[in-house]
Amino acid sequence: MFLLPSLVSTLTVLLLLSTLLLAATEDYYNLLGLSKTASDREIKRAYRTLSKKYHPDKNPNNSSAHAKFVEVAEAYEALSDSNLRKIYDQYGHEGLKQHQQGQRGGGGHHDPFDLFSRFFGGGGHFGHGGGQRRGPDMEVRMQLPLKDFYNGRETEFTVEKQQICEDCEGSGSADGVVETCQKCGGRGAVIQKHMLAPGIFQQVQMQCDGCGGKGKSIKHACPVCGGARVVRRPVTLTAVIEKGMPKGTRLRFENEADESPDYVAGDMVLTLQEQEPKLGEEESAKTDGTFFRRKDNDLWWKEVLSLREAWMGGWTRNLTHLDGHVVRLSRERGQVVQPGQVDTVKGEGMPIYHEGHLHEHHDGDEFGKLYVEYMVVLPDQMEKPMEKDFWALWEKWRLKKGIDLGKDSGRPSAAPHDEL
Ligand SMILES: *[C@@H]1O[C@H](CO)[C@@H](O)[C@H](O)[C@H]1NC(C)=O
Ligand SMILES: *[C@@H]1O[C@H](CO)[C@@H](O)[C@H](O)[C@H]1NC(C)=O
Ligand SMILES: *[C@@H]1O[C@H](CO)[C@@H](O)[C@H](O)[C@H]1NC(C)=O
Ligand SMILES: [Zn+2]
Ligand SMILES: [Zn+2]
């Protein structure tokens, strides 16, 4: 009899503990980032996103991610069943737990990996190197203006891909009932006898026409996928373009290729291509980006000078760079620029991208070089008096200062050339 008080207090402690544990369970709607009025579709979407994010294969050695993965599966199982959802809405976690214990005599959840495989195929794992079948990778290309390679950018893109049908969770059945095909006994193939000649038979294995080779039959096909178990739908992913990434960079999105209940999805590989610059688009209003050309870490620019500028100097140019900052080019009066001459401007090329050093601190970014190539244009026409003046000037100065270019360059001189 005198044991009773201690038993009672143990019970109290246990009860307290279980309330604490319950209190620690996050609200299912919060966990999935949904409001109480979320639709079935929204619940499925949230499950798809979060279960992938917290999957233990993507978070190795992270027990808190693993716990989240299990919780997200629990939340989905509760909220995707209209009956359980009603109970949860009304009585919360505890009510739901009691109900489940009543139902299954002891409760216990489904395997969260099973649920995951219904949404993503495979055995519930991403199966890199495992024994699981893996679907093909998917190639996608994205065209980006040079400006985006210079500045870096986070951009969303949408592609259509095959996804496991959310409505039937990859079963192909409206009511979840999938039966083994009667005709082939689930083998997907039947043996047929062909008579080649009287008394001579050939046995041929044929795809079962009762189930189309699947080995399973569905009475009520899912109205969304028509029993195909998969649908083609657009998905939106986010690509992070780092400053200075080379063109042709391949960004890998793990397990984002076509899905199927029969295999683990391969990777989607996004190739970054440089877009041909288009003249006269709004972009050129802000920067001179249309006219820059990239070569690895360097940029090239062509600058046009008039004959007067090239020869006499005394000019400035303001280039608006790809991020809007201004690079000033100039020559003092009397500084000559030869046609085709190339200036090198250090630190005005592309940012230098260090793969895998994303979050490391540099003392400011490093940049390649900017090469400025000069072109000189001569005037096409001259007015008569102007022509006369210039002619007279040339005549005056060439006799005094002219150098024989032919002799100067070591060529056998036929007719003399001169510099002036
Ligand atoms: C995870 O932990 C195991 C054992 O503690 C270790 O061998 C393994 O390298 C770890 N993996 C990662 C990705 O940290
Ligand atoms: C473990 O996973 C959680 C949830 O995704 C994340 O917030 C946390 O940063 C991860 N911890 C480590 C050490 O990666
Ligand atoms: C270039 O910019 C400088 C400083 O902003 C300004 O003084 C100069 O006039 C500009 N030159 C030209 C050619 O626009
Ligand atoms: Zn069959
Ligand atoms: Zn379906």
From TrEMBL:
Q: Where are the zinc fingers (CR-type)?
A: 152-234
Entry keywords, A to Z? Chaperone, Metal-binding, Repeat, Signal, Zinc, Zinc-finger
User: Which residue range or ranges hold the CR-type domain?
Assistant: 152-234
Domain J intervals: 27-92
Species in which this protein is naturally found: Endocarpon pusillum (strain Z07020 / HMAS-L-300199) (Lichen-forming fungus)
Report the record's Gene Ontology biological process terms.
protein folding
- Record protein name field: DnaJ-related protein spj1
Provide the leader sequence positions.
1-23
- Pfam families from the xrefs? DnaJ, DnaJ_C, DnaJ_CXXCXGXG
For this protein, the record's Gene3D superfamilies field holds: DnaJ domain, Heat shock protein DnaJ, cysteine-rich domain, Urease metallochaperone UreE, N-terminal domain
**GO MF annotation list:** Hsp70 protein binding; unfolded protein binding; zinc ion binding
